Amino acid sequence: MAQNTNTISLSTAQAWAEKWRKVEGTYNAHHELKAFLIPKADLIRLLEEEVDAVRAYIGVDSHEVEKLMLVGTRLNEESGVYEDMLPDSTPSGNIYDFTEPCPPQCDPESSLNNLD
Questions:
Q1: What residues in the chain have per-residue pLDDT under 50?
Q2: Dist. CA 95–CA 15, nearest whole Å
Q3: How far out from the chain centre does Cα 66 lie?
Q4: Is the N-terminal amide bond of 103 cis, ω within 30° of 0?
Q5: Where are the domains of the chain?
């Protein structure tokens, strides 16, 4: 079985996660967001839109809850750009908000959650 070259080590993931949480005022302004829970069924639904890739946008809703918005993309072979499949440009384009932030949806035993 071929090794996946898009994986990283646990120590690298921990370093990146810690930087996100600890660099005051640079990245995570809310200083609580650690991750997002994304249900499998929702990922499958997004992938069924015949996408070439998925792009994630980070935002904050009107209740100050962090959101991860996912959109399908298709590769424009001429430009080499993965173009967002949005409702204003693609009839089947959707913007998905089916994630839940961590906290509160965290794994309390995770080595990536317990960096403090």
A1: 1
A2: 30
A3: 11
A4: yes
A5: 10-102
